[in-house]
Amino acid sequence: MKKILFLVLSVSFTLMNFELIAQCSGGKVQICHSVGNACVTMCVPPNAVAAHVAHGDFIGSCSDGRLFALLPDILNTTVDFVEVNINTGVPTILLPSAASFVGIGTSTFDPINRKYYFRGRTEHVVVDINTNSVSNVPIVDNVVEYEYDANTNKIFGLLPDISNATVDFVEVDINTGVPTILLPSAASFVGIGTSTFDPINRKYYFRGRTEHVVVDINTNSVSNVPIVDNVVEYEYDANTNKIFGLLPDISNATVDFVEVDINTGVPTILLSALPLVGAGTSTFDPINRKYYYRGRNEHIVIDVSSNSFVFVPSIDNVVEYEFFSCLVTCPNCKTNINIPTNEDKEIKEFVNVYPNPSSKEISFDYTIDEKEDILSIEIYDMRGMSVAKLLENKHHKSGVYHIKWTLDDSIGNGIYFYKISSSYNKEINGKIFIIK
Questions:
Q1: Are 245 and 301 in contact (CB under 8 A)?
Q2: What is the pLDDT of residues 122-132, one digit of tens each?
Q3: Rounded to the nearest 5°, which phi and psi values hold at 146?
């Protein structure tokens, strides 16, 4: 029997002012290639990397994700829009002087249209990741705690009412930044950088000065529970329906990483004595279940699954972290994807996943043209656990195929991910909503 040896090379190179390392066979570079609202992890020759990056792709697996943020430029009283290396915390400037100084705790991200929204001191700012461009609209209302709702393509936030020492819950016009009050005097003044959003149940959580507050978008109602612990940096985890945050320990000049009871707001300490947080700098990766934040002099990564953390010294005063993964995208998208397999041949796979959302069954239609292939289709929950294998190393000739996934009682409501793997070492990843 003939043995074939594949040599895996570690390719180290510098792009966009920071060093990245990726692995692929045959000296190629692994990238996450975007096609519409879908994404594919693939390997390309080194000389094709620059063109892919210019197109909006990034180096590494699609599951790695990206961090975007703002870097204050004290000299010019502006902020630069930056991408932060997810492992080292090093920022790379994408758009210098994107707006006037940012209002703390006012950014949010639209993963479908890939837009980063934030509030400057005097403007509502929209950064389009696809085109690397920025637009802003002058505004005088001092709205804080932006949270994007993908269900309705709306932004919600809080508008301080100085006269009553309260905040109003508002909807912010996504284009103009103009707020419309939905719930006046929803709570006492908000703690900076303490809001988060549950996209499945459509609930907006935040910390008032003396209460844990829950706004139900569906019913336009608010409930709050008195609380004394000064937890900051709320981040919602759809995998477990939990909120995580940071509890300052003033005596030790550190913070504790905590789980916040979603109904009562009571914190439970998970990790102690972490570096102090910079206000408004946390974000959450729902794919890999990692909580990122910026300390005063560090970039910190907390792995929620293993309850462990690492940090890297960093002197740049970056604020307003927002995590983006193309795996967290539109639940109703149908995707045409052409996947290059080597220099001179390609396999074309058309994938249609429907209905999405669904309550009973999901259909996968796919076409393979001009080639034979071996495919696997697997479904994962938000924890990354496999819940179904629809195909496993199934040989296909060219043609049109259809397969169904019947949702039994073990499959609950929530977000799931499908992965279609081919024998050409390519993947198609997508998102499914289950609503029973």
A1: no
A2: 899 999 988 88
A3: -60, 140
